[in-house]
């Protein structure tokens, strides 16, 4: 295995809650109205320092999507997913975009999102822009 080189971002950023590798800038958030199993999730236009898993079709609250899980390259933690394709034409805007699960990242002020036991989502991807 080779050496890992991380990209460092400047500004208000989100980072891995385990190793603090930089993942995305607040200015690259498209929507904060998404949800996942652990509560809030944010749709990003671009992220850094992630690797991708295998493509798979997932039925989400907004329909069938082809996605890949994304992992922090610093520690290997699952931090969200990337939309590869959407079946519904109204969901095409998500293609090529990334979801970071708020529960799995630190916010711009270094804060952790606290998981609420009251959150019962039937699937992921509840938000709309």
Automatic annotation (TrEMBL):
<dbReference type="InterPro" id="IPR004910">
    <property type="entry name" value="Yippee/Mis18/Cereblon"/>
</dbReference>
<feature type="domain" description="Yippee">
    <location>
        <begin position="12"/>
        <end position="109"/>
    </location>
</feature>
<dbReference type="Pfam" id="PF03226">
    <property type="entry name" value="Yippee-Mis18"/>
</dbReference>
<dbReference type="InterPro" id="IPR034751">
    <property type="entry name" value="Yippee"/>
</dbReference>
<dbReference type="GO" id="GO:0046872">
    <property type="term" value="F:metal ion binding"/>
</dbReference>
<comment type="similarity">
    <text>Belongs to the yippee family.</text>
</comment>
<keyword id="KW-0862">Zinc</keyword>
<dbReference type="InterPro" id="IPR039058">
    <property type="entry name" value="Yippee_fam"/>
</dbReference>
<protein>
    <recommendedName>
        <fullName>Protein yippee-like</fullName>
    </recommendedName>
</protein>
<keyword id="KW-0479">Metal-binding</keyword>
């Amino acid at each position: 295995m080779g050496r890992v080189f991380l990209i460092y971002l400047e500004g208000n950023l989100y980072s891995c809650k385990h190793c603090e590798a930089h993942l995305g800038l607040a200015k690259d958030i498209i929507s904060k109205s998404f949800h996942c199993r652990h509560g809030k999730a944010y749709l990003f236009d671009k992220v850094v320092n992630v690797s991708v898993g295998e493509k798979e079709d997932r039925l989400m609250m907004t329909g069938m999507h082809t996605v890949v899980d994304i992992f922090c390259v610093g520690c290997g933690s699952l931090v969200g997913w990337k939309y590869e394709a959407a079946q519904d034409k109204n969901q095409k805007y998500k293609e090529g975009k990334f979801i970071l699960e708020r529960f799995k990242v630190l916010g711009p002020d270094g804060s952790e999102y606290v998981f609420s036991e009251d959150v019962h989502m039937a699937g992921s991807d509840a938000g709309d822009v």
